[in-house]
Structure formats: structure tokens, C-alpha cells
Design goal:
The chain contains twelve helices and nine strands. With 267 residues, it is of the alpha/beta class. It has two domains: 197 residues, Alpha-Beta Complex (2-enoyl-CoA Hydratase, Chain A, domain 1); 48 residues. Helix 10 runs antiparallel to helix 11. It is globular and about 60 Å long.
């Protein structure tokens, strides 16, 4: 029986999604894309999940697209590439979908983070990396442009000249340098521990306000000021009515730790 390319383990309020091709440094093929999308879709409606940790099994987070495996079936590749009336094709959806989840998605980076791996990490909400991890927007090496929906978060995280340099040269940078540039969130010798430290903070907040905040901040990056203010008002009104808001307020007044119910906002 073939090993699953993606493992999903739920430990209480935390879902661990693990790329599972360690012999290929978690190189991306079409099956891995399908399994990652399926994992994200299965978590989207789970109202008990409070955070997702995205990580790689073995020596690396993800060494990029496995061209040899991914392009064996050229007809299937063409289907993955075709977007039609949709805004994203399947190559793009595998990274963009994590932004649509109503919980924080935290990428834990070690070893190689190349090409598709950088795009997948950028699709997460936060990125915790070892100092010696190797990051590279590697498409330039193969005569390609950055893709897989990575250019949107790249443009949000990095100055234009930095994106140009990294994308045009494909040069490698360390995890420590990725943090300095703003591509990664935090550097740590134990990035999983650091990521879970952030998750612990999230668990002390209303799952509804966390979900609404994520939607608000992403949506307001790409719309008019008027629409941004309107969305802010609408989401705040929804939070005033949420049961978890009442729980947070009551616990805050009593100086106690809140015990929240399931998330009510979002899908």
C-alpha cells in the first residue's frame, strides 16, 4: 500500500498537517497537491480546530516541485494548470487555500524550503524557521516565473526590490536572513516549539474573533478603503453577537482564563 503523501493528525484544538515524502525531501507531485487540498478542505468546517501546523517529515520542509514525478502525466498536468472560470488553478489552490481557512495556519520550516515549498510557506499565516534552513524562490533556475499563488504573499511580505532580486536570481538565503527580510516570521532552533508558543496565545482568544480578524486583514489588503471600513463594521457587529465574545468579556472582567465553545463564525 502506498504511503499517504500528507498526514493529518488532530491533537485537541490543533491540527498537524505533515508533508510525507521524506525520501524526496517532500518534493511536490500531483498526488501531494491533491492530498494537501483535501486536508485543507476537511479542516475548513471543523469548528473545534483552533490552529493548523504545516510541516515536513524528515530532513526538509519541502524541496520544491518534483518535476520527474509531477510531469509523468502531461494531460493531468494540463488539467491542473487550467483555471477556467475559477480564480485559481489546482497548482495555485494548494497554497492559496490555507488563507481561506478560518484559523491561523503556521508553517514550521527546516532543511530545504525551495520553489513550491516557499510558496506553500508563504500561503501560511505565519512562518517559523530554523536559522540554517535554506530558502529559495527557485523557479528562476528552471527559466520559470514564481507561481503557485506565491506572488501575492511575496508582494505583501517583501519590498518590491527584494522580491525582484530573490525571484529573478533564485539565490538561496538562510532562515535567519528570511526573517530579517520579512519572508519568515521568527527564527528558532526549535521552530515547532516557537510555533506552538504562538498557538498557545491564540487559544486564549475567542475562536470567532481570531477567524474574523484573519478574514478582515486579508480582505482589506486588496479592496478600497470604503469597502474595508464596511467589512470592519460588519465583522465587528457579528463579534458583538457571538457567544464566545460574551465568554471572553466575562472571563476578562473576572480575571479568569476563558473556556470557549466551538467557533461559530465562518464556514
Amino acid at each position: 500500500m502506498t504511503e499517504p503523501r500528507v498526514l493529518t493528525d488532530i491533537d485537541g484544538p490543533i491540527a498537524y498537517v505533515t508533508l510525507n515524502r521524506p525520501d524526496k525531501l517532500n518534493g511536490v507531485d500531483l498526488e501531494l497537491i491533491d492530498e494537501l487540498i483535501a486536508a485543507a478542505e476537511s479542516l475548513r468546517s471543523n469548528r473545534d480546530i483552533r490552529a493548523v501546523v504545516l510541516q515536513g517529515h524528515g530532513r526538509s520542509f519541502c524541496a520544491g516541485l518534483d518535476f520527474g514525478a509531477a510531469f509523468k502525466d502531461k494531460r493531468r498536468v494540463a488539467k491542473f494548470f487550467f483555471a477556467g472560470p475559477r480564480t485559481v488553478n489546482r497548482f495555485q489552490k494548494v497554497t492559496a487555500i490555507w488563507r481561506d481557512l478560518p484559523v491561523p495556519v503556521v508553517a514550521v520550516i527546516h532543511g530545504h524550503c525551495y520553489g513550491a515549498g516557499v510558496q506553500l510557506a508563504a500561503g501560511a499565516d505565519l512562518r517559523f524557521t530554523t536559522p540554517d534552513a535554506t530558502w529559495s524562490i527557485l523557479e528562476a533556475k528552471w527559466g520559470l516565473v514564481p507561481d503557485m499563488a506565491g506572488t501575492v504573499p511575496f508582494g505583501e511580505l517583501l519590498p518590491a526590490d527584494v522580491v525582484m532580486r530573490l525571484s529573478m536570481t533564485g539565490e538561496s538565503i538562510t532562515g535567519a536572513r528570511a526573517v530579517e527580510l520579512g519572508l519568515a516570521t521568527e527564527v528558532s532552533d526549535d521552530p515547532l516549539k516557537a510555533a506552538l508558543g504562538f498557538v498557545d496565545q491564540i487559544l486564549e482568544r475567542s475562536p470567532d474573533s481570531v477567524a474574523a480578524t484573519k478574514r478582515l486583514l486579508y480582505a482589506n489588503r486588496h479592496q478600497s478603503v470604503r469597502k474595508s471600513y464596511r467589512l470592519e463594521r460588519r465583522l465587528q457587529a457579528a463579534m458583538f453577537k457571538a457567544k464566545n465574545t460574551a465568554i471572553a468579556r466575562k472571563a476578562g472582567m473576572a480575571k479568569e482564563s476563558p473556556v470557549f465553545g466551538p467557533r461559530t463564525y465562518g464556514p
